[in-house]
Amino acid sequence: MKHSRLRIAAGLKRCARLSALAIAVSLAWQAPASAAQPLTPKAYKLADSAYKAINAGDLPLAEGYASRAIKIQPGSEQLGLLLVDVYRREGKVDEADSMVESLIVRFPTSAAVRAQHGYLAQRQMRYDVACRDFAAAVATGKWSKEQQRNLRLAWSDSALAAKLPHEAGIALAPLADEKSAVIQVRIAQMSLQAGDRDTAIRMADLAAGDATTDGERNMAASIAAQARQDDQAADAPVDNTAQQKLQDAYDLLREHKDREALDAFQAGFSGGAGNAMNYADAGYAAKRIGLNQESIDLFEHSLDADENEHAFDAQRKFGYRREVEQLQRSWGFVLSVPYQSAAFGPQGTISVLQPGVEAYWQPPKIGYQNGRIFQFFVRGYGTAYDGSGNTTGLPTVQGSVGARYKPLPDQNVVLTAERLFHVGSQSMTDWLMRLGYSSEGGTDLRVTEPSWRSWQAYVEGAYFISAGRYIIYSELRYGHTWRLPMISDRLTIYPHAAVAGDHDNRQPDKTAIGAGPGIQLRYWFREGRYSAPASYLDVTVQYRFGVTSAARARGLVVRATLWF
């Protein structure tokens, strides 16, 4: 008896989550019909880019676009809902909650805002609040037939979870004649809560016959089994301590208390509560406070739970696997073979082939802290070929050892200090300080899209202290990436346009800028059940036409890179 009640409770939570997820997706991709303020051209362009980034699974990029759009047009309801959706997908519960609360104040009669507020309340198990929001959204909104159905399902699920069968009946009334296990199983549960065992059994049996998933069949069987009990234990109170712990966790997240929220999550999980989304939210909380191994374990639990729940699409699961890969990385190496692209090469040389290797290590705890990265590295490189006839081979081998730090979680700013030391007879000894910044979109693998827009922007300043030499290098690429599934679903091709340049105070022609077409082939590998591909091999070929007169600005550029 107790087990059937627990299965029903778990089923209700899953139904509530999935129906509300359908609402959230609908709101994310359709502008509210009542939106009175049209978007300005610039805000519209940024919003469109955010929607595309969401579709591609690039949530940090989507957040950037949505945040910029709402700064341009802060009074837009549509842009506010867009940013709420991005925060929700990123697991930023407190930011999503804060944004939607501000939207409720500014747009108290908006059906779209009430529906999104209801979704967040339902996710946080504040079912009474969710009921009020969904009821208001249904009553005041101009929804499509599918949207209306999803709202009523979410409303009924919240009412059933709150033990309000009469309100669940109001929500389901227009759908009652639908011959669907989705509706029948809810009417069966509503009838059981209201004490009508005969109707509960009849509707549960109908649901079992019309069910299309194991979850629906199991839920129907559990309701029927409970309703057929001879005693009155069906009305006995259920221990909701574990569920309350999860509720406490979300309350604490809204207060930015990640440590306490994580403890509450773990208490709820220990008590048998929790679903795939709860585990993912807990994983993000652990990540933010630097508990990397605990975060890894929680994301893995989330992926395991989703095997039965099917709450995530393929790109969402890939995103969690990427989180695991980044959290568990502690070392690696990079092999590169660039032709005519030798940064810091001997002065006056062109057509240079300069292979190099780097090994790096991230110390435990401080190596990766919620996007902040600290690494030690050692590297060596030398000239294998020089079209100008200069020295090649062992005399040119240069060694260095150093450390680099990425201090900002959401911005790719990297500070590097390294000591250059002699290996070959023509190498140097010096201190090299570097400051780099890069931004990119669409450079990771996407598992649900056949193609997507890609771009990269990079700039770095380097200063050799003893030599008094400084170099500023930059490159911009823009193009489109296609997967090549006919060969491998982990192989991509990226045709692009590139602009690259440098300023070197020791060169006769101090500034060199070139531009031209390029193409890159990249193969991703070394992935696991819980982790996204950790390594890739790529080959990039570009031909640059000189914008300035410097010889190093033009010609063929080829790079082969193994990132492991």
From TrEMBL:
<keyword id="KW-0732">Signal</keyword>
<dbReference type="InterPro" id="IPR011990">
    <property type="entry name" value="TPR-like_helical_dom_sf"/>
</dbReference>
<dbReference type="Pfam" id="PF13283">
    <property type="entry name" value="NfrA_C"/>
</dbReference>
<feature type="domain" description="Bacteriophage N4 adsorption protein A C-terminal">
    <location>
        <begin position="389"/>
        <end position="559"/>
    </location>
</feature>
<protein>
    <recommendedName>
        <fullName>Bacteriophage N4 adsorption protein A C-terminal domain-containing protein</fullName>
    </recommendedName>
</protein>
<dbReference type="InterPro" id="IPR025137">
    <property type="entry name" value="NfrA_C"/>
</dbReference>
<feature type="signal peptide">
    <location>
        <begin position="1"/>
        <end position="35"/>
    </location>
</feature>
